[in-house]
Amino acid sequence: MASPLSQFEIKTIVPIEVFGYDISFTNSSLAMLATVLLIILFLSIGLKNSSIIPSKSQTLVELSYEFIAGMIGDNIGKEGMKYLSFIFSLFMFILLGNLLGMLPYSFTWTSHIIVTFAISFFIFILVTFIAIFKHGLFKFLGFFAPSGVPKAMLILLVPIEVISYLSRPVSLSVRLFANMMAGHTLLKVIGGFVFVLGANSFIIGGALPVAFLIALTGLEIVIAFLQAYVFAILTCLYINDAIHLH
Question: What percent of the chain has pLDDT over 90?
Fold first, then answer.
């Protein structure tokens, strides 16, 4: 029986090497490309024949848009609306990537720390540049020294604030990666129990693991939505900090 971790293996589909660097097209690349195509398909179908009285597909697209717009309004304010397209794309990319990984024989690219960290690090760089360009370098550095704090305490607080700020991309990426990897590993393990118990004791032995597997699958779908939401809302909070420096 295959290891529960075998589903996370990177497999080369089209080998490509440039200047000694391996940039092959892999199953992870294919899954991310499929995710982008699903987003384009979702938006194209929903907005193809848009009208005042929306169809079901148009309603779903508009609800998604309003959901992200409301999230930005609540956490950033009107100034954050210029980042609507970015946060909407980020949310949909992670959400559909998570859901795509629930399909049989698919690949969950959000379960790889290198991918989630790359996205998180890009957000970290973006937020830092927003803060510096809006407030200037020296005012941005003042973000790490809370006002009204005794100078003696700054010796302790400034390093803590710096470490906390630098840990943002790590915590953001690990949260998504760990949840998706743990959930899919557990599904694989329980699925193995269904096969083994069902083979040895027929329907009776496999019934309980199957019921648990169905419930766990439903929970994993909820987690897929939740992790996309958490990723998007934390991005909103980081942008809010960059804009208002608090």
Answer: 41
Instruction: Work out the average pLDDT over 43-67.
Output: 84
Structure token pair of residue 70: 């409301």
Tell how far CA 175 is from the center of its chain.
Answer: 9
Residue 76 to residues 84, 166, 246: CA-CA distances in angstroms? 11, 21, 12
The span from the CA of 48 to the CA of 46, in Å, is 6
What are the backbone angles phi and psi of residue 82, rounded to the nearest 5°? -65, -15
Nearest to 67 by CA among 242, 219, 233: 233
Report pLDDT digits (tens) over 142-152.
Answer: 878 777 777 77
Other CB atoms within a 10 A radius of the CB of residue 239 amount to 24
Residue 116 and residue 122: Cα distance in Å, rounded?
10
Closest by CA to 216, choosing from 192, 186, 195, is 186
Angstrom distances, CA of residue 134 to CA of 77, 79, 123, 137, 146:
16, 12, 16, 9, 19
Determine if the pTM surpasses 0.90.
no
